[in-house]
Each structure stands twice: as structure tokens, then as C-alpha cells.
From TrEMBL:
InterPro entries: PepSY (IPR025711). Pfam families: PepSY_2 (PF13670). It comes from the Bacteria. It comes from Lacimicrobium alkaliphilum. Residues 13-91 form the PepSY domain. This is PepSY domain-containing protein.
Length: 93
């Protein structure tokens, strides 16, 4: 009986600890890439709006992500939906 209880406790511990290292990924879209806005055109539109882009990339969660500065000169990290250009997540320093 103690062995069964020990195994159950061990199993629960493994499940709890395995979840500790999981990082969430910001998911912007599940639409196919052929429906996404052109990357260069999208970046140009952001520059036209006053953003200064230091880095642009496509994330694991299918987002257009920029690092740079917004119109107010604040340092930003922004995730955009590549289908419609809407902001999904924004961090301002």
C-alpha cells in the first residue's frame, strides 16, 4: 500500500514540476501565411506612423514582433497580428 501511495505522490510531483518550465507563447493568428500582410509594407506603415524599428521578426506564435520606439520615443516591444496589423500585446518601458 505504501508503494502505491509513493508512486502516486511521485507522479503528482512530476506533473507539477514539469509545468514549471513551460513558457507561454503569444499566439497572434492561425491563418495561413498567404493571408498575412507583406512584411516590408507592414514595417513601412509602422515607420510612417512614427515608430522607429530596431528589430523586426516573426515569432513562434505567428506574430510580427518589433523592438524599437513608439511615436512618443518610449522603448517598446509589440506583437502584431500579421493578418490585420492589430496590436496583440505591447510592452512599454
Amino acid at each position: 500500500m505504501r508503494t502505491v501511495q509513493s508512486l502516486i505522490s511521485l507522479g503528482i510531483s512530476v506533473l507539477v514540476l514539469s509545468g514549471c518550465g513551460v513558457q507561454s507563447v503569444t499566439q497572434c493568428t492561425t491563418e495561413p501565411e498567404d493571408t498575412w500582410l507583406d512584411q516590408e509594407t507592414f514595417q513601412s506603415s509602422l515607420t510612417d506612423k512614427g515608430y522607429e524599428i530596431s528589430e523586426f521578426k516573426v515569432t513562434e506564435g505567428n506574430c510580427y514582433e518589433i523592438y524599437g520606439h513608439n511615436q512618443a520615443g518610449q522603448k517598446v516591444e509589440i506583437y502584431f497580428n500579421p493578418v490585420d496589423g492589430s496590436i496583440v500585446k505591447e510592452e512599454i518601458e
